[in-house]
Amino acid sequence: MAKFTCYVCNKPVVTGQKFTFTKSGAVHYHCFISEKSKNVDEQNSGKLSVLSQLLDSELQHLLNILNIKDAPEELKELINRKYKDIEKAVVETTNAINSL
Ligand SMILES: [Zn+2]
How far is the CA of 31 from the centre of ligand 1 (A)? Predict the structure, then answer.
């Protein structure tokens, strides 16, 4: 995996961690949410709470798929497609959080 640095904490983002990408670059899940919660107004904080739970579970889902070892060759395409589907969900949720 390419090397990325989190734009909030300036530490490396490594495989096995929960992270996402925004226009600013790679960011850890917890850094993203804590940074956002500082800037979100009262009326959106409930939405941030729900969206951050969604993003957390989507990122966990991605990690779980990455952890599948020794998948039979004939399942690799299916697994890859599932991974891409969840990646799309992560992008969608990240954008929703960003727009709060
Ligand atoms: Zn970070």
Answer: 5
Give the Cα separation of 70 and 87 in Å (integer): 21
Q: Where exactly are the structural domains of the chain? A: 4-98
Decide: 8 and 35 in contact? Cβ < 8 Å: yes
Within 10 angstroms of residue 33's Cβ, the number of other Cβ atoms is: 20
The per-residue pLDDT for range 57-77, each reduced to its tens digit, is 999 999 999 999 999 999 999
- Choose among 42, 3, 31: nearest CA to 94: 31
The rounded Å distance from CA 42 to ligand 1 centre is 24
Indicate whether this model's pTM tops 0.85: yes
